[in-house]
From TrEMBL:
A Pfam family: MFS_1
Membrane topology term: Multi-pass membrane protein
Subcellular location: Cell inner membrane
Membrane-traversing stretches: 23-48, 60-80, 92-112, 118-145, 166-185, 197-218, 239-265, 277-296, 308-328, 334-354, 361-377, 383-407, 419-438, 444-463
Statement: the UniProt record of this protein carries the keyword Lipid metabolism: no
Protein name: Sugar MFS transporter
Ribonucleoprotein listed as a keyword: no
Taxonomic lineage of the native organism: Bacteria, Pseudomonadati, Bacteroidota, Cytophagia, Cytophagales
Organism expressing this protein natively: Reichenbachiella ulvae
Coiled coil: none
InterPro entries (UniProt xref): MFS, MFS_trans_sf, MFS_TsgA-like
Keyword annotations from UniProtKB, A to Z: Cell membrane, Membrane, Transmembrane, Transmembrane helix
Highest rank taxon of the organism: Bacteria
Amino acid sequence: MGGGTISSSANVQMNAQTSKSKAFAMLTLLFFMWGFITCLNDILIPYLREVFALNYFQAMLVQFAFFGAYFIGSLVYFIVSTTIGDPITKIGYKNGIIIGLVISSIGCALFVPAAQFLLYGFFLAALFCLGIGLTVLQIAANPYVAILGSPETASSRLNLAQGFNSFGTTIAPVIGGFLIFSFFGGENVLGADAVKIPYLGLSALFLLLALVIKLTDLPVLSSSEEIPGGAGALKYRHLVLGMVGIFMYVGGEVAIGSLLVNFFGLENIVGLSEGEASAYLSFYWGGAMIGRFLGAISMSNLPSNKKLATMLGTAVAVFLLIFGVIYTNTGIDIQTVLPFVGIMILNLLAFMAGKSSASRTLAVFSSVVVLLLLIAISTDGLIAFWAIIGIGLFNSIMWSNIFTLAIDGLGKYTSQGSSLLVMAILGGALIPLMQGALADWVGVQYSFALPIICYLYLFFYGVMGHKKTVNPLEA
């Protein structure tokens, strides 16, 4: 009889683990999709600019509408959570994800009438709706990934999921460009019709995914306890400092990426044309994919003797994948990118120095980024060129590590805290503007001094800002 009880208990644990594994597999697909669809904006901007004869300011309203939705959506969510209680904590993460998918599907579907009526404002409204849907997904899915297992491996799971997000951003320009500019586009296509079928297909895919998640038995992680109103999450000092961390990280990463083409075009660097420079952008953003997969392994429960071998094999495999994608479009020689391999080795050494700790790894990586920025500012030629590209590898784990450190111990305020962290994505809109103004004043190369401030703050957060201490307001 006792053996039957043990067997029954073991079966329950096995079923629970299987359910969590199934949930995580679903979530990695979500992360891939929103990485893919976010990067499609880079295809939309030149396409819509040509269709509507826009200037650069008008064309950049695409990003303003899309990323503005993150801030407004998470702000509204936070206000609701402070007045009537946290919505996702009440309805469950699964239902929150389904709602986000449905809203995203509506946003994609709105591209069809926008193209039909040929109204730029309609496109911006569709992008805003899509951004709201992805905001809900971010608020629900990030903490869901984090709490699907033990807190010690939360960063590992989030890094793995973010790795698939980066895979989406790496292949989206290739696939999206082919579909919009070639397969569904071309000289015989009128107006903005080339975006109709791709975005209608994405709309159907979002709906199908929502249906699959609805019918799949996933862990229902919601709270039955009373969720009081008020900004309870702000009582946690490490969350508030984490919000600043997300603001700084997203701002620094986007600011650097936004000026890379201009930096590569400087005569004292390598003087590349815009077409040539764009090929190397994939190494900056693809580096994040490599680092995130390595971060998932580094902060997992794998035995130490297996971690290094697994990380080495993964690094080589993902590098070859990125190189293959770029080679398909450019025919680039592998010897040209060997310095990137050297920076990958430095990245592995930094992971070893991080010792599988989210906070320690964040501190190590941010300090390396500061060093690479200083090299990019103070040197010329290929040294500065590869130093700035290498930053992508070290940006990789920052979102995941900051996020998991910031929501650790929030309990019933986890979703509210998640909405505040998503709101801090606003840094991606403000800091690039500040660096742009600085570039007008002191030049592009020296403007990279601004992100140094961002990464110095992240070093502080990794060393001590993440520690859970009594909020001074409550002391």
